[in-house]
Amino acid sequence: MIGKLINRLLQGIVVLFVLYTLTFFLIRALPYGPFQTEKAIPAHVIEKLKTQLGLDQPLHVQYIRPLKNILLEGNLGVSTRLEGRPVNEIMAQAFPVSIHLGIMSMILAILIGLPAGVISAYKKNSMIDYLLMATAMIGLCLPSFVIGPILAEYLGRSKQMFPVMGWDVRQVSTWGLPVFTLSLGYAAYLARLTRSGVLDVLSQDFVRTARAKGVSTVKILVKHCLRGGLIPSAAYIGPAFAGIISGSLVIEAVFQVPGLGRHFIKAIETNDANVIFGIVLLYGALVTLGNIASDFLIAWLNPRSRAQS
Predict the structure, then answer these.
(1) 205, part of any domain
(2) Could you tell me the pLDDT band of residue 112, with boundaries at 50, 70 and 90?
(3) What are the beta bridge partners of residue 78?
(4) Which residue pairs from 145-148 have beta carbons closer than 8 angstroms and sit at least 24 positions apart in sequence?
(5) Is 40 among the domain residues?
(6) 224: burial class by Cβ within 10 Å (0-12, 13-18, 19+)?
(7) Would you say residue 298 lies in a domain?
(8) In the prediction, which pLDDT does 309 show?
(9) Is 86 left (phi over 0), alpha (psi -120 to 50) or beta?
(10) 121 in Cβ contact with 202 (< 8 Å)
(11) What is the CATH number of the domain that holds 242?
């Protein structure tokens, strides 16, 4: 297991290196520079800024220097958009908001998706099963940037149940719309995976033997099926959490949540390379850690998988 962990961490480092390289060249491919603003900046000021930021250096130097600063010092540089403000400071302020939104959304997705999948499997081919799976399919088909405005209009403006915009960690009501919007698609997929996993376990020989001995279906579900039936869902939870975190970039923009999403979109609009690097690498690391956590959760749920590791 330790060997597998080390192997996955090394793979993650390679992925982050590739991600850094792709991001570097994509930023350089943007048709506008970091100093193209609504107000014209004098040429001598632009040249001075380029010298300060190292943008007048050869391409390979521009590639290596930020990478060296990140690896040796953990320094992501400064923002060109926010007048030299350190990127580390920007991310330290905004990331807790994004991670809070992501964790709450993941918890809600699990609380909705897993019970819905188990109930659907228990009530297979019933009206409840059809209704739950139809709802899950709708949740899968509608992207969050479509669901968000619909919920904002209905639950926010019409019913006035939640504030339409803004975020205050001390007021739970401000979490409602962004958390619910972000969690729905993942809850739908978890429901379908859980239903499939539980039905697969229910079809096995030991379950038929238990039924022949008179064990109730509910007891079979709780005692025998949940752990094995949740393996497909466990495999999905790690990547899902990473997806929720990265998907929050759009939701934050829709609901004016002061997280990393706002900075990321503004950074792309203004070619603020260091901010883009910081956020992309952070989310890349989260995806890697989410996948590793998912592997260990599967190993815990499935002893055979642990033995093979």
Answers:
(1) yes
(2) very high
(3) 86
(4) 145/250, 145/251, 145/254, 147/181, 147/184, 147/185, 148/177, 148/178, 148/181, 148/251, 148/254, 148/255
(5) no
(6) middle
(7) yes
(8) 52
(9) beta
(10) yes
(11) 1.10.3720.10
Q: How many residues does the chain have?
A: 309
Report how far residue 59's alpha carbon sits from residue 48's, in angstroms, rounded to the nearest whole number. 18
How many whole angstroms separate alpha carbon 114 and alpha carbon 230? 8
In 3D space, the residue among 4, 70, 3, 23 whose CA is nearest the CA of residue 291 turns out to be: 4
Q: What is the residue range of 160's domain? A: 88-270+291-308
Question: Can you give the pTM of this predicted structure?
Answer: 0.78
* Residues 97, 166 contacting (CB under 8 angstroms): no
**Is the distance from CB of 185 to CB of 142 less than 8 angstroms?**
yes
The answer to whether position 136 is within a domain reads yes
User: What sign has the CA pseudo-torsion 42, 48, 50, 56?
Assistant: positive
What total number of domains does the chain contain? 1
Other CB atoms within a 10 A radius of the CB of residue 129 amount to 16
Determine how many CB atoms are found less than 10 A away from the CB of residue 111. Answer: 13
For residue 135, the model assigns a pLDDT of: 92
In angstroms, the first-to-last Cα distance of the chain is 5
Lowest mean pLDDT among 34-48, 112-126, 214-228, 257-271: 34-48
Average pLDDT over residues 287-299: 78
- The pLDDT, as a whole number, for residue 231 is 78
pLDDT tens track for 46-97: 677 677 666 777 888 888 888 888 888 888 888 877 777 888 999 998 888 8
